[in-house]
Every structure is written in C-alpha cells, then in structure tokens.
Specification:
single chain; alpha/beta; Rossmann fold; 7-stranded parallel β-sheet; two-stranded parallel sheet; 11 helices
C-alpha cells in the first residue's frame, strides 16, 4: 500500500464542480475529516439539470459541522474562463486540486457537442495551466492534482473487467473522447512540468441527491408520475453501479497519496473506481421499485410491469461496464463495497424526504 505523502490538515483545496453530485459530497466529508481545512468550491451552476438541486447540495455543505477554522468558500464561475481560474489560483493558492467539473452525459454530447469541448477540454486545460504556473517564482505550488475521468473511455472494449492497462483509443461518444483527452493532457503536463496527477475513472455513480439525468433518478421521477420508463437494449445491459460514499472514500484516499515517479520519471497515475460487480439493468430496476415501495415513494400495489418498456440500444451507450479495481485495492487498501440494494435504499429514503 502506498504511504500517505499529502497531509490534508491545514490545506487549501480547490474543488471544481463543487455543487455537483460528487463534488458536494466530497466537500462535506473533507470538512468533517480534517482540521483547519479551507475548501474553495467552484461551479458555474449551469442548467443542464435543475439548478435548485445544486443549490440544495451547496446548502448541505454550508450546514456541515466544521472545525473552528475550517471553511468552505464558494465561487461561481466557468472553468472555460481563464481569467477567472487564474484569479482563483492567485488569490487562494490551492495546494490540492480536485477537478470534478465537467459536462456529463453520453447522450447529451451527441446533440450538444460545443459545451463538452468548452467545459471538458478548454476548462481542464485552464486548470492544468494554472497548476503549471503555481510553481512560478520558486513557490511550492500544487502538491496533487486529482481529476475525474470516466468508465466511458473504455468504449466498446470486449475484454472485461476493464483494466487501466487496456487500450482505450476507440471512444463511442464525444463525452468519452473528452475524458480520454483529459488523461492525455494530464500526462503531458505531468511530464513537462512535474505536476503530480491522478485520474479516476468513475463507474456509474449513484446515491442520494444524485444527478437527475441518471437512470435510477429519471426512472423514479417517471414512475412517481405514472409514466412509462424505457429500458434500453431490452434490458441486456450491465452496469458497475458505484455508491457515492464509496466514490468519496476513494477520492479522499487518493488525495492523500500523490503518485510516485513511474518508469518514465512521470508522476502520473490512473485508477478505476467501480463496484467490481456489474448488475443487470432489469435486476436493477426491480430492486429500485422494491425500495421505492418500501420507502413509500410508490404505493404497495403499484403495477411496475405496466410501466416499463423494453427498447433498443441508444447511440453512444455500451452493453457492459465492469471495473478491475485490483490496483486501487493494492495501492490504497480500499475497494467499493456498498451493495446495490443498500445504495438504492438510501436513495429512495432521501427521495421521499426531498420531495416531501
């Protein structure tokens, strides 16, 4: 297991996408785990989905119990705005950067490509440039850059489980292509400017206060409204669903261990974070409706069979995602472990209270 070489106590940490699902949960956990921590949260609060949910998450962060001198500072702005990003780095001089801000969604990237290039490519480039210049004039600068990649980079790879050693040169969506570009950019900047960087390929993250465009959340909204849900590829999809608490725990473990130089002398690493247990989509929706009934989101006599429709595969989708997390476990002594039923139960109970 890798030794911890980044002490987060007393650190200034920049978290982009702080009003997002993962960013907000990470901020809350960091504020409770570490002393004298300062989190600079950046988000553009765009309307890709309901902004009120993002504002709800920010309020949850602000209510989190913090140490006497720990604080959360929110700055609204876009990563694509280089002046804004440079000002953030100049004013706060973050020592650890976690870049989670990105335009998400595979299908949305097919109809709205511009926003993906702006946020995921130009935005990430601006972060890398700011990290590079954090070392100017002999300053200590950024100790560790952690950034979000995605299981989407594996595209239509046939070999499973997906390993970070696999070739990932055949993305099936623009979203996946932008995430692969992030890994390439990070490697180049790590090589050229010695920025310690770690990329995390997330596998289907879910849980309370998650993204409404994700299947479990969208299905729930439709079922509550007595609408029909469409199950793609006739239910013959498998997803490595990863509960939000496991994702956050993994990020925190990674943040504290910046990568050592590899055989090429580059401080660069990429890991999978997934549950290592793909679930069939039909089983997933069956468990979801059972937990929604148990949480009294749906009535006990709800006729689920009448509200589902099996349809073909959507462009950009893949049949299976399956994470090989052996390296994550070896380097950090950690692997996701929350069962799908336990995770969906937490979501169903949150949904009931949130909609009340």
């Amino acid at each position: 297991m890798l030794n911890k070489n980044v002490d987060l106590n007393g650190k200034t940490i920049l978290i982009t996408g702080a009003a997002g699902f993962i960013g907000a949960n990470l901020s809350r956990v960091l504020l409770t785990m570490f002393e004298d921590i300062k989190i600079i949260g950046v988000d553009n609060l765009n309307d890709y989905y309901d902004v009120s949910l993002k504002e709800y998450r920010l309020e949850q962060i602000r209510q989190e119990k913090k140490g006497a001198s720990s604080e959360f500072i929110f700055q609204k702005g876009s990563l694509a705005d280089k002046v804004f990003i440079d000002q953030i780095f100049s004013e706060y001089q973050p020592e650890v950067v976690v870049n989670l801000a990105a335009q998400a969604g595979v299908r949305y990237s097919i109809t709205n490509p511009d926003v993906y290039l702006e946020s995921n490519v130009i935005g990430f480039y601006n972060i890398l440039e700011a990290c590079r210049h954090s070392y100017d004039d002999g300053k200590k600068g950024v100790e560790h850059l952690v950034y979000a990649s995605s299981s989407s980079v594996y595209g239509s790879n046939k070999k499973i489980p997906y390993s970070t050693e696999d070739k990932v040169d055949n993305p099936v969506s623009l979203y996946a292509a932008t995430k692969k570009s992030n890994e390439l950019f990070a490697h180049a900047y790590s090589k050229l400017y010695d920025i310690p960087s770690t990329g995390l390929r997330f596998f289907t993250v879910y849980g309370p206060a998650g993204r409404p465009d994700m299947a479990y959340f969208g299905f729930t909204d439709k079922l509550v409204k007595n609408e029909t849900i469409k199950i793609f590829n006739y239910g013959n999809c498998k997803r490595d669903f990863t509960y939000i608490d496991d994702i956050v725990k993994g990020i925190v473990e990674v943040m504290q261990r910046s990568p050592l130089s590899n055989e090429d002398g580059v401080r660069y690493k990429v890991y999978n974070i997934g549950n290592n247990k793909p679930e069939n989509l039909l089983d997933f929706v069956e468990i979801l409706q059972e937990e929604l009934k148990a949480a009294k989101v749906l009535p006990q006599d709800y006729d689920f069979e009448q509200h589902k429709e099996l349809v073909g595969m959507q462009p950009g989708d893949v049949e299976v995602t399956y994470a090989d997390v052996e390296e994550l476990e070896k380097d950090f002594g950690f692997k996701p472990s929350t069962s799908l039923r336990d995770g969906l139960r937490q979501f169903a109970q949150w949904y009931r209270n949130y909609q009340a």
